[in-house]
Amino acid sequence: MKKAIVLLSGGLDSATTLYLAKKQGYKCFCLSFDYGQRHRRELESAKKIASTANCPYQILKINLPWKGSALLDSNIVIPKHSNIRTPEHSNKIPSTYVPGRNIIFLSFALSFAEGIGAEVIFIGAHTHDYSNYPDCRPEFYRAFSRVITTGTKSGVEQRKIKIETPLIKKTKAQIIEMGRTLDVPFQFTWSCYQGVNRPCGKCDSCYYRAKGFKEAGIKDPLPKGRL
Amino acid sequence: MKKAIVLLSGGLDSATTLYLAKKQGYKCFCLSFDYGQRHRRELESAKKIASTANCPYQILKINLPWKGSALLDSNIVIPKHSNIRTPEHSNKIPSTYVPGRNIIFLSFALSFAEGIGAEVIFIGAHTHDYSNYPDCRPEFYRAFSRVITTGTKSGVEQRKIKIETPLIKKTKAQIIEMGRTLDVPFQFTWSCYQGVNRPCGKCDSCYYRAKGFKEAGIKDPLPKGRL
Fold first, then answer.
1. Which chain B residues are Cβ-neighbours of A155 within 8 angstroms?
2. Which of A62, A66, A147 sits opposite B144 (nearest CB)?
3. Among the listed ranges A80-89, A189-198, B141-150, B206-215, which one has the minimum average pLDDT value?
4. Does residue B95 register a pLDDT over 60?
5. How far is A19 from chain B (nearest CA, A)?
6. Which of A87, A143, B48, B168 could form a disulfide with B146 if both were Cys (CB 3.0 to 4.6 A apart)?
7. Taking a C-beta distance cutoff of 8 angstroms, is the pair B151, B110 a contact?
8. ipTM of the complex
9. Each residue of A29-46: pLDDT tens digit?
10. SS (H, E, C) chain A
């Protein structure tokens, strides 16, 4: 059985990606990171999702002491989503950007894949209904693929490890529809950037989740936030 | 004063790179990794070198539970260097290769650089007198530079963080000569892959160190190994 590493944050996208990878016949090894994020609560979600999907799961603890992000630094306020983005702000990267996050995650996933002989790394990144994070764009994944070809034993030996981004061009609504078809346990997923008991309903992540469920015509099983 | 991140392993190459970066006028932030390497002893060396150079220093602990390397797994014997490499072995990557190591190190260095506004990451990789590690080659660093351009806020905002590999084409002897000119404290550096009190004198790393000092006509201040 072919092996895959699946980066699992505990959100809708990565959960859907996991179920998709399973459907494609991969034995999936799920990987999450405890990187000091405010919303560490997402790790409980990731664990539950992996367990529901009957997949091995591990959390790696990493330390980013330089912070530089609202997700890591409680002194920075998590911005509220403004759904009327002016053109000048439409490409702005918000303060919730974590320097190098997906690059670090992929690097560990790559090491894991080489270590256990997995052929593929799945990541649920996409460029619709997202927060302009540069490390969610196709050009970044193409560049990282070149890193694999040139900088690893697998690459040199022509057993290249592939990065799969099956959601890259999907809207949040399409991801949710796909997730429903795959029986993704939406009730266990977590999206909110605030690390509290109920989704705040105000951050970018809550905004896009609510928009996606609304457009898909599906009811979100998580309670509506009121912080 | 311009800031730089310097990846400091505690060996000759990274120590020389640090002194070179300092000479170029950078305020250098040194970064080492405790990644479960057998030769954790190199971290004491790194700390001493950073302190001698009067530079801030931090060690990040990372966990690579999948191992996949003789440097991480005490069940795998560290290979002795064979100085008559047959053509069929000349491009072979040895068991001391650590999956994704420099990719992970660079990813953290990149996050650090974005977090504190550093312009450059220095790494002492080179392709002469080395062990065929793929993540020491110029094509890998070019590929990683493209990751920075496409996958980071700095890249998108045209404040690209540069990777500097000043030793990439130098032989070990040239690095040692350069290090002497820069007053690098060779006596604090550590190269041996075995984590014991004296260099083993037999591993690839000891072999290239000895060869370099011999060719440079300089005496290595470290004791000769006899394991």
1. 134
2. A147
3. A80-89
4. yes
5. 23
6. A143
7. no
8. 0.94
9. 999 999 999 888 899 999
10. CCEEEEECCCCHHHHHHHHHHHHCCCEEEEEEEECCCCCCHHHHHHHHHHHHCCCCEEEEECCCCCCCCCCCCCCCCCCECCCCCCHHHCCCCCCCCCCCHHHHHHHHHHHHHHHHCCCEEECCCCCCCCCCCHHHCHHHHHHHHHHHHHHCHHHHCCCCCEEECCCCCCCHHHHHHHHHHCCCCHHHCCCCCCCCCCCCCCEHHHHHHHHHHHHHCCCCCCCCCCC
Q: Which fold has domain B3-216?
A: Rossmann fold (3.40.50)
**Which sign does the torsion angle of CA A108, A114, A116, A121 carry?**
positive
Q: With 0-12 CB in 10 A as exposed, 13-18 as middle and 19+ as buried, what is B27?
A: middle
d(CA B145, CA B148): 5
The chain B residue lying nearest A102, using CA atoms, is: B151
**Are B135 and A155 a contacting pair at CB < 8 A?**
no
CA A134 to chain centre: 13
A184 and A223 in contact (C-beta within 8 Å)?
A: no
Residue of chain A whose alpha carbon sits nearest to that of B147: A143
Cβ <8 Å between B134 and A155 = yes
Total Cβ atoms within 10 A of residue B220: 19
Amino acid at residue number A67: K
Give the contacts of A223 (CB within 8 A, at least 6 positions apart). A198, A199
Residues A29 and A118: beta-carbon distance below 8 Å: yes
pTM above 0.80, yes or no: yes
Token pair 């529809």 is found at A177
Interface touch A110/B99, C-beta < 8 Å: yes
With helix as H, strand as E and coil as C, how does A179-195 read? HHHCCCCHHHCCCCCCC
